[in-house]
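Narrative of activities, Objective 1.

The group set out to show that a structural description can be obtained from nothing but a protein's sequence at a throughput compatible with the screening campaign. Below is one input-output pair from the validation batch, recorded exactly as produced.
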Amino acid sequence: MSTSAPNRPSLMGRIRGLARPRSDKAVIPETTTASGQLLAPERSSLVSTGAVIQGDIASPGTVHINGTLNGNVRARKMVIGRTGSLTGNCRAQDVAIAGEMAGELLCGDLRISETGRIDGTINCGRMSAGTGARIDAVTQTNGQDDLPEISLIQGTAAS
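Output recorded for this entry:
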C-alpha cells in the first residue's frame, strides 16, 4: 500500500530532481505547442546504423546519417557518422563527414575527419580535413558562408 499523496512527486523523481506531481491527467511538456506538436530545440533526422534509405531528405535542422542513404540531402546541417554512407548530392550550411560520401556537395563549412572519405565535387566556403581523410574530388573553396544558386535535387533550384 502506498503512503504517498496523489499529487506528491515519487521518491525517485525527487532524487533526480524531476518533481512532477502524480496525476492521471496527461502533462503537456513546455516543449509542445497548444495543438500538441513537439517543439525540439533543434529539429533533426536520423538514418540509423544498419538502415538503408532510398530517396531524398529535406530538413530544416540536422540530418544525421549513420546508415546508408541513396538520395539527396537538403538541410541546415548534415553529419555523416563513421558508419554512415551517402550516395547523392547534399546542400547544407554545415557538413561534417566521418564516413563516406559520393556526389556533389555544396556547403558553407565542411569538416572531414580522419576517417572521412568523399568522392565527387565539393563547393564550399571553408574546408578542413583531418590527417588520413580521403578526398577524391574537384574542390572549390571561396572563403564565404553564402551558398551559390545551383540545382542539387532534380527539378528544384537550391536557395
